[in-house]
Design goal:
The chain is mainly alpha-helical. It has ten helices and no strands. Keywords: DNA-binding, Transcription, Transcription regulation.
């Protein structure tokens, strides 16, 4: 007997897979609910009833991707953990499907508020997954008290996304390692600690 919710789960997976394909191949502008239904071999009524808009599909897709992302790596050192994070980001951005998909979603987020919110939620989930590597480094005495864990993680991935979006150079593993090394060095120097000159107020998030 089919388990309860089995068909619903299959419909969702098929539609989200179709949405990811379109984003990777053609970009956000080509997303269309009727086309997604056709690609997923699902009734249009089902797609319209469940999601209603293409932005809702993208939001659901990002939520699924966040849930399925690999858990953080614990190496016992801040640099080791940040290097693992950078290599994971780099592997995602250089993937033939995932790289173009993220580029399309980021581009859409610049002009669509709902997509921007979905993207922020996705990255908040991933940052929360990796932030403990910084708090553990604080506990080990590797970095100063008051270091903003979220900002350290953002500092790792920012140069990699810059290269993705601008095409400024390749995204080899050495680039990922260098981003991790730079973020770790800055964290050890107190750049991300509360009260640092030009730094971050961890209570308010203000610079």
């Amino acid at each position: 007997m089919e388990r309860p919710g089995g068909r619903t789960a299959r419909v969702r997976a098929a539609v989200l897979r179709a949405a990811g394909d379109v984003l990777a191949e053609q970009g956000f502008a080509h997303l269309d609910l009727s086309d997604l239904a056709r690609r997923a071999d699902v009734g249009k009524t089902t797609v319209y009833r469940r999601w209603g808009t293409v932005t809702a599909v993208v939001t659901d897709l990002l939520a699924e991707m966040a849930a399925e992302s690999l858990p953080r790596t614990e190496t016992g050192s801040l640099l080791g953990d940040l290097r693992a994070n950078a290599r994971l980001v780099r592997a995602t951005l250089t993937d033939p499907r995932q790289g173009p998909l993220f580029a399309a979603v980021i581009a859409a987020a610049t002009c669509d508020d709902a997509t921007a919110r979905a993207l922020r939620t996705f990255y908040a989930t991933r940052i929360a997954e990796w932030a403990p590597c910084v708090t553990q480094a604080v506990a080990r005495g590797e970095v100063p008290e008051g270091t903003d864990a979220g900002e350290v993680i953002r500092a790792v991935s920012a140069p990699l996304y810059y290269r993705l979006l601008t095409g400024a150079g390749d995204l080899g593993e050495e680039v990922a390692d260098r981003a991790a090394e730079a973020a770790a060095a800055a964290a050890r120097a107190g750049v991300f600690a509360a009260g640092a000159a030009g730094g971050i107020n961890t209570a308010s998030g203000a610079r």
